[in-house]
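During the reporting period the student researcher (J.K.) took over the structure-prediction task from the postdoctoral fellow and processed the backlog of single-chain submissions. One of the processed entries is reproduced below for the supervisory committee.
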Amino acid sequence: MASYIDPNWTTSTRVSSGITYNYALIAAAEGKPYILFLHGFPSSAYDWRHQVSFFSKTGYGIIAPDLLGYGGTDKPSELKPYSLKSMSDDLDMTGKSSDGPLRPIQLQVRSVKLLRRGSIFLGRMANYHPERFSAYAFLSVGYYAPIGKFDVDEINDETERTLGYCTFGYWHFFNATDSAEITTSNPAISSALFYPADPNTLKDHFAPKGAIRKAYENGFTGARPAWLSEDELATHRKIFGAENGGYGGGLNWYKAQMANVNAADEEALPIERHHIDKPTLLVTCEKDYVCVPWVQEEQMKPFVRELEVESLDCGHWVPLEAADALHKVLQDFFDKHL
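J.K. obtained the following structure tokens:
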């Protein structure tokens, strides 16, 4: 939740689609671009707290939204608003409204850096609104080109063949009608699965088909990771508590993808929009057994013309696990491509 970074940096706006977005906003120093921080699941702008603190001191402008379904932003129950094009348009609002979260960029600068840990939304922002960005940084999860119809079983079959285990088995649980209730009503289990101290937890108890439901049924437990304090863990649980809507909004991203709400938009994209022709950084995590580093890199190579790859010795949550190392990598990349 953006307000947990610093309430003095937090604002909200209602865009023309009717959605109200909550986000952290820090003005850029003269001549400096903005960095747009896009979080993944199960997260919020709060998980960028270390990066916001670091880069705000270097003069970069900061925009860190709670994405749709998360934190202080609206959480619609219907799936249509969670289409990647709709959400991209919400954040961009080019030609639609001067009140979108990217309004400061329209008024003050011509370039922005975009980064997140997940690839889907970042990639589609690059596909639908490439004119808004000067460079991209993917963390943990790489870019993959629009595929039209999404088939999670096909992905699982392929990773089973190449890795010996499936990596998207948890999608079936996330798509289930009871997933929001189960994840929200069992905060200790959710924390242990989503923010594990042992990176193997994702491989053994999260990714395989049926594993995550079994973990909830068996009362899975796990130690708190050293990179997450007791207070930070309590804040995360509060953000996803039932009083704040729980995990349901975030899970709707998966349900929308499984329902193929993005298929028509992706099929309509011209083929040249499938490629990224601006400097792009991929930061892989050596102990990420779901977003396997070599897989992320290989899927990007055919579509990204200026790809740089850095690897860090950590698990999936690189902004939290390896914040200092990540800051150096990102600053070097940003300074090089300004």
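The committee noted the following: The two ends are 29 Å apart (CA to CA).
J.K. will present the remaining backlog at the next meeting.
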